[in-house]
Amino acid sequence: MDQLSAAKALALVEAVLGDVRQGAAPDVLTGLEVLRRLREEVAAWEPELIAAAREQGESWARIAPALGVTSRQAAERRYLRLRPSATGEATGEERVRAERDKRAGDRAVAHWARQNSVALRRLAGRVSAAETLGDAAQARVDEALADNDPAALLSPLAAARADLREAHERLADELGALTRQTDDVRQATQGRRDR
Description:
The protein has helices at residues 6-21, 28-55, 60-67, 72-82, 92-115, 117-129, 135-146, 154-164, 169-194. By secondary structure, the protein is mainly α. The chain folds into 2 domains: 6-84, no CATH class; 104-194, no CATH class.
């Protein structure tokens, strides 16, 4: 809060409320304004603290009782409703839906990658062997090739496209087609969820 600490703001609101209860006529509007500002500040703290708990490895099931909710789903839903939108959703419910849609898309793409793992690994091997691939891109592709999950290849392959555009146009085009294909998988998932 600008000029008042949260503790001072709370004390001011309590003093105004005490005066009201004793029949005095203080500046109630000031109390309401300070209460609104305090409520806004406290509301901003909750998603920050929840995110910190998650970063420390706390599970949604352990966070739920601290939030006064009974399930891990309710705790996560509360967090998604409260946190600021990174992608432009206006309401909390839109943020919940966007996060669920993103996760569904991620699962669909991971499933697609597992089904196409041989082709993905062959493509990644060709990309890794390209002499124009930068050192950082090379390291990311090689690390993803060593990963058991073929979905780990998707991001490094998409990023490698820029390094290959001039000297390996056909390979860069294949990477572009791969990106379009995974986007199509995401869109198809979204279409099914919208029905």
